[in-house]
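Predict the 3D structure for this chain.
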Amino acid sequence: MVSYLTEALVDLGHDVTLFASGDSYTRATLEAAWPRALRLDPSNRDVLAPHMVMLEKVRRVAHEFDVLHFHLDYLPFSLFSQLDTPFVTTLHGRLDLPELQAVFNTFPKTAVVSISDSQRLPLPQANWLDTIYHGLPEKLLTPQTRKEPEYLAFLGRMCPEKRPDLAIEIAAQSGLPLKIAAKIDRADQKYFKTDIEPLLSQAHVEFLGEISEQQKPGFLSGAKALLFPIDWSEPFGLVMIEAMACGTPVIAFNRGSVPEVIDHGVTGYICEDVQGAVGALQRLDDLSRTEIRAQFERRFNAMTMAQNYVDSYMSLLQASRRPVLRRAAAG
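Done. Predicted structure below.
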């Protein structure tokens, strides 16, 4: 998401510097904070150390920028609250952890952005600057022309909160085949072995494992619907807009951000339980896949996300009584 935002800001004509790993691809100015992406570097045993190096790199040149935008949770709060350069942090994860109360009580003036209004609920005392939904480049995922969709899809992490077991149950009750494209993180391997693997032998289930970005358009376009039977307060749910980008309806449980992302009866159906989801699958013909794609383009494209962030930067600058945001000449 940081990459999509960075590239869209460049397209809008802004002078952007990206502090990231040295193997990053970007049209912005890249300042390498570490040679290689941490998740691809098995030799790194302390992921906090490279982040500390990066934060110090940013601190030393902070005065050169109009605005600093962080995606590192609360790590920048203490250091950058001491500087004059305005900064904002987008919070990407769950905020219902008790430990976070003390952090946000300690930094009540630090500007933060939520990725859904639902995400904010555990921390009403935080200094919320805005809610800005995620966006994808318009051509990243597109509807693929193929034969009539014939299966249901589950896409995401194989973890208890995502409830792949309920997706299997919904598909079984609806009489439709289910294809599961999911990665298994190390922390979820026991859950997969104990709770999910025994269910994969059922005739209507096909487990594909993790798929690439290049495989997603075909996988999602070929599905009658994406099942999203979550069992937690999802902060956003990126797979929902990935499906919408491909024109695929979403059948989602009414949790977390779902009512903010899905337009009930337009881009999918919002349900309360398994029976509701099974019933919603019988009404898929009432939805237009063309309109689902159009709604994605209106609400969840990367340029919309970037412009919303620019508006927030401007609000931050005005509140700090700094000069207006400088723009680089485009073209």
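The radius of gyration is 21 Å.
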